[in-house]
Amino acid sequence: MKKGINQMIILIHKPYKILPVSLLLFISSLHAQLPNDISYEEALKITLAAQKVAIDTNSTVNIAVVDAGANLKAFIRMDQSFLGSIDVAIKKAKTARYFNMPTGELGKLTQPGGAIYNIELSNGGLVTFPGGIPIKNKNGTIIGAIGVSGGTIEQDHYIATQAVKTILDE
């Protein structure tokens, strides 16, 4: 058997399936940060900005930031915030990223008779009321999303919108 990178094999876990190195390298690259992904520093900055707006508006909320792949990147649970809002904040952020639009705008399309009525039942559960906003960089590329939950929907939307502006102020 000729030995070369394309012919090299690696044994992986039981039941000892043989995978080419190129597939193994691809799998390991899935853990790498995407080129248009929000950085940890940006996610932290937006999350802390949202917390400040929440404090300034006397709101007690949960704040989630997801990356471009809709994976949780940063999270704050303010003292005394609702336990149920933890999951809602995360789902608002994921929903905003999945559809690249504010969750409140998506919600308008999900009403009875709407073009995508009942879509909330997909993707492991979506949230289609205000509080989720896509995060764009200065070039307009979506790099993640924020979800805020625990206040009124108006407060959640306001907090998320104000926080997202901080990344553009750099």
Global structural class: alpha+beta
Mean pLDDT: 84
**How far apart, in Å, are the first and last alpha carbons?**
56 Å
Q: What is the spatial order of strands in the main beta sheet? A: 4-3-6-5
Tell me about this structure.
- Strand 1 (9-12) and strand 2 (17-20) form a beta hairpin.
- It is built from 5 helices and 6 strands; from the N terminus they run ββααββααββα.
- The strands form 2 sheets. Strands 4-3-6-5 form a 4-stranded antiparallel sheet.
- With 170 residues, it is an alpha+beta fold.
- The longest helix has 17 residues, at 40-56.
- Residues 1-14 have low confidence and may be disordered.
- Helix 2 (40-56) packs across helix 5.
- Helix content is 38%, strand content 19%.
Can I get a quick summary?
The chain is α+β, with helices and mostly antiparallel strands.
List keywords for this structure.
19% strand, globular, 4-stranded antiparallel β-sheet, disordered N terminus, alpha+beta, 5 helices, 170 residues, two-stranded antiparallel sheet
How would the blueprint of this fold be written?
Elements: E1 9-12, E2 17-20, H1 21-29, H2 40-56, E3 62-67, E4 72-77, H3 84-99, H4 103-109, E5 132-136, E6 142-149, H5 153-168
Antiparallel strand pairs: 1-2, 3-4, 3-6, 5-6
Helix pairs in contact: 2-5
